[in-house]
């Protein structure tokens, strides 16, 4: 018998999840400040990478490999739009590669400390180093799988977009208006798919820290929990991502622009840059707390469904078993 996952309404609204997360952050600010300081090197690297990308030797190499790949796929775009697309992808890939060592070290250490604090029965208790390592190892493995998942989703979306363009052109709909409409539709769908993937990856990291799942099985558990609640998860993630984008824009405006206009580095620029990077770390901490709160709500709703006898689903030791569907 095929196992169905009925949609269980999430009692807490997205704004309540955000409010609870901010309240948790303020209530345990002394502990989360340490996590923000741990994430500070990642924040600095991420903010500076957007400025240093044009000077990186990786950018021309990646751009040189992407251009023939897009040409071979017969992407029917104007030369100007084609150049913008390939350059944007090249800059994004270069920035991700430059920040990757900090993402796998400082960022994961900060997220592990947050998940460890929130997984305790009473957050004021001092977490132990051994429990930290027991959480960090599965989180690291899950993050590596998340990277491969995001790359696979991007490659799949672009492949489907290429096929759609070629199919439309084969049917004779090769006018600029139809191609532009398809490109806009594809971009919207791509954004939604990528946003759902990122939310799922964040839940998988929390699942790895709380329930000690690792790798693919943590991602599978996150997919099960988020089923039927994608709209709530996206509504929670949007304000946090807007805040991250706002801090990045603030860094470009207050630090990078001031440096370009002065043509020299002054002391107050460094202090202001550290302050903006610390704000970025605070938002990263709040994002992790929001993911933990969302995970807790989704797991509670999932258990309610089991107790009501709607379904019974079990993931253990790398095995996925459909035990029973109760009447």
Automatic annotation (TrEMBL):
Membrane-crossing residue ranges in chain numbering: 29-49, 97-119, 139-165, 177-199, 233-253, 273-295
Keyword Transmembrane helix: yes
Signal peptide interval: none
Protein name (database record): K(+)-insensitive pyrophosphate-energized proton pump (H(+)-PPase) like
Entries under PANTHER family matching the protein: OS08G0107100 PROTEIN-RELATED, TRANSMEMBRANE PROTEIN
Swiss-Prot/TrEMBL keywords: Membrane, Transmembrane, Transmembrane helix
Keyword Coiled coil: no
């Amino acid at each position: 018998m095929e196992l169905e996952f009925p949609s269980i309404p999430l009692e807490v609204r997205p704004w309540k999840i955000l409010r609870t997360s901010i309240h948790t952050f303020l209530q345990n600010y002394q502990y989360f400040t340490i996590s923000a300081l741990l994430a500070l090197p990642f924040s600095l690297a991420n903010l500076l990478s957007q400025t240093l990308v044009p000077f990186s030797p990786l950018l021309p190499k990646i751009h040189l490999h992407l251009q023939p790949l897009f040409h071979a796929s017969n992407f029917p775009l104007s030369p100007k739009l084609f150049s913008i697309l390939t350059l944007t992808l090249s800059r994004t890939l270069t920035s991700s590669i430059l920040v990757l060592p900090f993402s796998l070290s400082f960022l994961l250490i900060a997220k592990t400390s947050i998940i460890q604090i929130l997984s305790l029965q009473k957050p004021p208790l001092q977490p132990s180093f051994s429990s930290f390592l027991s959480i960090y190892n599965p989180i690291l493995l899950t993050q590596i799988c998340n990277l491969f998942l995001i790359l696979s989703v991007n490659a799949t979306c672009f492949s489907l977009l290429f096929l759609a363009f070629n199919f439309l052109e084969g049917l004779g709909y090769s006018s600029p208006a139809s191609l532009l409409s398809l490109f806009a539709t594809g971009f919207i769908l791509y954004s939604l798919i990528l946003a759902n993937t990122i939310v799922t990856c964040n839940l998988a990291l929390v699942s790895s820290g709380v329930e000690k799942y690792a790798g693919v099985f943590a991602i599978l558990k996150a997919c099960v929990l988020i089923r039927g609640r994608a709209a709530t998860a996206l509504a929670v993630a949007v304000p946090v991502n807007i805040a991250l984008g706002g801090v990045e824009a603030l860094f470009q405006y207050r630090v990078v622009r001031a440096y370009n206009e002065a043509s020299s580095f002054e002391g107050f620029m460094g202090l202001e840059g550290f302050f903006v990077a610390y704000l970025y770390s605070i938002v990263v901490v709040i994002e992790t707390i929001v993911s933990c709160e969302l995970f807790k709500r989704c797991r509670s709703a999932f258990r309610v469904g089991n107790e009501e006898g709607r379904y019974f689903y079990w993931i253990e030791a790398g095995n996925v078993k459909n035990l029973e569907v109760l009447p």
